[in-house]
Amino acid sequence: MNPAVTLSLAVGGHITLIRAAFFVLAQMLGSSLACILLRALTGGLVTPVHALAAGVGPIQGVVAEVVFTFTLLFTIYAAILDPKSSAPGFGPLLTGLLVGANTIAGGALTGASMNPARSFGPALASGNWANHWVYWVGPLAGGPLAVAVYEFIFTVPATHQQLPTVE
């Protein structure tokens, strides 16, 4: 349910770009409908939007979101997607712990979104688009960057040869 994760999986070759586009569309639609429904069910209360803290500029916000999303995707790759993971079965727990740590560390700065869909729904429902681009640029840059670092530095390339095909 996160466009940054979806894009990163596409960059890493785990899903196709067409499938990723459909996933992102569904994620945006789901977030939007949920926030609109929540607003209707609560008598007009608006879901809070992510916002930059006082003294935090947009560029600082982007850098923070890049770092948060980088660590999220690096953890997903190392603990869940890598078949040689040293923590098999613990990937979801480690990912959840990291999201919690990122939220504690960065919640006061940017809200530590790490998820463009999570930021989009409330912005749409409330009409508050202030610095909304930060929550797209940061995660969509940080996720694929983590994939590139993990794939090119930490993944050992396969050294096996293809089996011959039978005709």
TrEMBL record:
Lineage, top ranks: Eukaryota, Viridiplantae, Streptophyta, Embryophyta, Tracheophyta
Identification of the protein by name: Aquaporin TIP4-1
Location of this chain's protein in the cell: Membrane
Membrane topology annotation: Multi-pass membrane protein
Pfam families documented for this protein: MIP (PF00230)
UniProt keyword annotation of Flavoprotein present: no
Transmembrane segments: 6-26, 33-53, 59-81, 93-113, 133-153
InterPro entries associated with the record: Aquaporin-like, Aquaporin_transptr, MIP
The keyword Transmembrane helix belongs to this UniProt entry's keyword annotation: yes
